[in-house]
From TrEMBL:
Region Disordered, residue ranges: 1-22
Domain spans labelled DUF577: 122-289
Originating organism: Arabis nemorensis
Classification lineage: Eukaryota, Viridiplantae, Streptophyta, Embryophyta, Tracheophyta
Protein name as annotated: DUF577 domain-containing protein
Pfam families per the UniProt record, alphabetical: DUF577 (PF04510)
Length: 348
């Protein structure tokens, strides 16, 4: 009886059985501080490697990373970029995975309405600038970097922190005739850009490159990127009150969609391009003012009324309208007169 009682007491004790060292909160916290306090990223690179290859029974790596994301997201974001920047080229999978982790981290922060702090913004932008201008990047990595830049740009411009290096980089891509990268990185940028950022792009004819991609694309992917970049440019131009360029961009988009759907019979491609615009509207609608709401709403109606686009493409256009009304905070009736002055179209 005494032995049974002793066994019961032991099993009910919080220290029985003793937890593995790697799952101890104290150990995890101590290890997290040790890794993040180090200027060397070797241990964090090893952690990213373990997560990348999902080694079995390696709960310590998962617990450590969870601790980072919960308690040190700003420092983790900076460190993940360091892993990407300083990991040697024979390990491309690890470098790419560090960007995937960073992208997911920034998405979580965005959905939690938590912004990066000023110190982290400065460090992250410094590393991003270096990654763009001094390193070779694969196509997939560049897509991830473009999404990361977009999310960092939101916090940067909301805090009125300029990003001249990014504007200069986009201009350099334009000068090098790197159409795909130019369209991709601009299409991802958010609707918080200021005039100082946008005007150099216009002065270097970025809108002309977008129009060329819409009307004379070299590939299906370039057309989709130009469609998304053109849509983004139209939104940015509204805030600059450039009615002439808003008209040019909207007209080019409509003309290009008409040609793709009815002349080239590329209805699946048109649907793919419009779905990218759906994604863009979903991300940006919370930042729309009345002007953007009205232009985008009418744009969706115009897409639905194009003859011969097909039911699937028409459904994609309806989704733009649905997402707009769902996410726009002040959605309401439309001012058709305003839309006509912004786009140049007569909607009577």
């Amino acid at each position: 009886m005494n032995m049974k009682s002793s066994s019961d007491d032991s099993s009910s004790s919080p220290s029985y059985p003793p937890p593995p060292l790697t799952s101890s909160p104290l150990y995890i916290a101590r290890k997290a501080k040790e890794i993040l306090a180090s200027r060397d990223v070797t241990e964090l690179t090893n952690l990213v490697t373990n997560l990348c290859y999902e080694k079995e029974n390696d709960e310590s790596s998962k617990l450590l990373y969870k601790c980072f994301t919960k308690h040190f997201p700003n420092l983790l974001a900076t460190k993940l970029l360091q892993v990407y920047r300083f990991t040697t080229s024979p390990r491309p999978k690890i470098r790419s995975f560090s960007l995937s982790l960073l992208d997911s981290l920034l998405i979580d922060l965005e959905e939690s309405r938590v912004g990066l702090n000023t110190k982290a913004l400065g460090d992250i932008k410094e590393h991003l600038n270096a990654c763009l201008v001094s390193q070779e990047t694969s196509e997939d990595d560049f897509k991830l970097l473009s999404r990361i830049i977009s999310r960092v740009a939101v916090d940067s411009f909301i805090e009125n922190i300029p990003w001249h290096e990014l504007s200069s980089y986009i201009i350099s891509l334009h000068e090098e005739d790197d159409h795909k990268k130019t369209l991709l990185i601009f299409s991802e940028l958010p609707m918080v850009l200021d005039e100082d950022f946008l005007m150099p792009l216009l002065e270097n004819d970025l809108h002309v490159k977008i129009l060329k991609g819409l009307l004379d694309p070299s590939s299906d992917e370039e057309w989709c990127l130009a469609l998304e970049a053109g849509f983004n440019m139209a939104l940015q131009l509204i805030s600059l009150q450039r009615k002439d360029l808003v008209f040019d961009m909207v007209y080019a988009i409509v003309k290009s969609v008409l040609e793709m759907a009815n002349v080239r019979k590329r209805k699946i491609l048109v649907r793919k391009g419009l779905m990218r615009i759906v994604r863009k509207v979903r991300r940006e609608a919370l930042r729309f003012r009345e002007a953007e709401y009205e232009v985008v709403s009418r744009f969706a109606l115009m897409m639905m009324r194009i003859d011969g686009v097909g039911k699937v493409t028409e459904m994609a256009a309806k989704m733009i309208h649905h997402v707009l009304d769902r996410y726009y905070m002040g959605g309401g009736g439309l001012d058709w007169g305003f839309i006509q002055t912004q786009t140049g179209f007569n909607f009577a």
